[in-house]
Amino acid sequence: MPKVGRKAKRRRAIREDQYLSPDIWVQVIASLPVKTLLKFRCVCRTWCSMIDTPDFVSKHLSLCKGNFDNTHLLVFERSSKWGDKGCILRRTDTFRKTHQYDFVTGQDGTHVEVEGHINGVLLMHMADPSETTGKLGNLVVLWNPSVRKSIKIPPPPILSKSTSKLKVEFCFGFDPFREDYKVLVITYHGPLSKVRVLIEVYTLSTGSWRAISNDLSFWCSKEQSFLEGAIYMTGRTLQASTPYHTHLVSFDVFCEVFNAIVLPNVENSAELLDRTVTLIDQSVGLFDFGSNCSIVCVLDKHGGTESWTKRYTIDKTSDSLFYVERKGLFYVEKIHLLLFEGVGEGLKSYDIQTKQLKLLAKTIAYDSMHFVDTYVESLALLKHSAQLCTVEAVCSKWDNHHPTLEEEKGSRDNVTVEVHDFNENLASG
After folding, report:
1. C-alpha 7: how far from its chain's center?
2. Segment 334-368, tens digit of pLDDT
3. Within 10 Å of residue 428's Cβ, how many Cβ atoms?
4. How far is CA 269 from CA 240, 244, 276, in A?
5. Cis-peptide into 22, omega within 30 deg
6. pTM
7. Structurally, how many domains does the chain consist of?
8. Is residue 28 part of a domain?
9. In the structure, what pLDDT confidence band is assigned to residue 103 with cuts at 50, 70 and 90?
10. CB 144 within 8 A of CB 378
11. How far apart are CA 417 and CA 346, in angstroms?
């Protein structure tokens, strides 16, 4: 019996042309931020299954990379002189804090080194929590702070077999054909008169290390850049007498082979302070830092040939511009900013076109910012099941996070939208 005094609710019929096709739904949902997508996974099984697919993860990443507004700076910094280190997401233009991924170092002095990052995933090499020295051990972790997922990588067998290591370098790459992440460890074994290079590769899909044959004959730099399926580093020959790097060394992640090309000649070797590789407008770039001026070159590829083109010449406008730590130097595309951490002087930006130097943030200690780089959030590692772990050194504490003013404004601006079913598997409400 119908209730008296109340109008019966009528469900208004929706014309068939008002429904969106599944392809359009995917396009719309893939443009949303990661934090929203994690909530959408709880709406229904259909959306959860869709968001977890590799195709959706790739599409979301592609849309994020194509929108410069989604590019931020990821900074590992200390909040106070004796405070814990935090992982902060900041705007590239104003350096304003937009989010914080807190991680506990486990103990004071624990050292964490970011060896590389691709598609929102960081390769972190850190001290073993059981050690008290704070030195880097064999603990290697892949971490995506956006989705709060980490994967502990087993120690490379080569590190435990030999004690005559002269140098160890970790590299991080992504195989675009197999859509698989790979970690590369390069070890140099003495004596110096006859250096041997041994290399092992860890593949995320298999969860195991394996040795690969190589013809690498260079000391490779710690700084690296990844572009179009290859890892790029500067290097000098094992028997070289020159103090600076002379070659650009690349590692093809799919074929697992090394290649090398000669770097541009140094115009004045007596004034050269450092050489480092980075990415400039989706090309491999080289920074030559000199005592009087610095030169920026870009690697051009035309018809299978490779050549270097001088792009910028930076005059010595400030002493601090040329005394920088290479780990804190990179180029921000589209706004033509060269960002770097001056030794004990804070984070600064240098506009290559206008030649303006700007202080973005002061440092409270020499090592208060030990990692700064551009970062785009992604869904990578969201559904990966291989050795998922909760390592304290990379554990995000979103539950205890206090939102910033920008986040609070974003929450107020959210609009609740009634979403109609777009296929038969989605139950109507």
Report:
1. 57
2. 555 666 655 556 677 777 677 777 777 665 555 56
3. 7
4. 15, 9, 15
5. no
6. 0.76
7. 1
8. yes
9. low
10. yes
11. 44
Q: Is there a domain that residue 51 lies in?
A: yes
Read off the pLDDT of residues 397-410 as tens digits, 9 standing for 90 and up: 323 333 333 343 33
4 part of a folded domain: no
Task: Name the residue among 290, 328, 342, 327 with its Cα closest to residue 312.
Answer: 290
Compute the distance between CA of residue 120 and CA of residue 142 in angstroms, rounded to an integer: 10
Cα-based distances in Å from 209 to 150, 152, 236: 18, 13, 27
The encoded tokens of residue 24 equal: 């359009």
Q: What are phi and psi of 368, to 5 degrees?
A: -70, -25
pLDDT surpassing 50 at residue 308: yes
- Please indicate, yes or no, if residue 25 is contained in any of the structural domains: yes
H, E, C per residue of the chain: CCCCCCCCCCCCCCCHHHCCCHHHHHHHHHCCCHHHHHHHCCCCHHHHHHHHCHHHHHHHHHHHHHCHHHCEEEEEEECCCCCCEEEEEEECCCCCEEEEEECCCCCCCCCEEEEEEECCEEEEEECCCCCCCCCCCCEEEEEECCCCEEEEECCCHHHHHCCCEEEEEEEEEEECCCCEEEEEEEEEECCHHHCEEEEEEEECCCCEEEEECCCCCEEECCCCEEECCEEEEEEEECCCCCCCCCEEEEEECCCCEEEEEECCCCCCCCCEEEEEEEEECCEEEEEEEECCEEEEEEEEEECCEEEEEEEEEEECCCHHHHCEEEEEEEEECCCCEEEEEECCCEEEEEECCCCEEEEEECCCCCCCEEEEEEECCCCCCCCCCCCEECCHHHCCCHHHCCCCHHHHHHHHHCCCCCCCCCCCCCCCC
Domain that holds residue 28: 17-61
Range in 55-59, 79-83, 205-209 the model is least confident about: 79-83
Share of the chain above pLDDT 90, in %: 11
- What single-letter amino acid sits at 385? S
Closest CA to 143 of 173, 111, 121, 118: 121
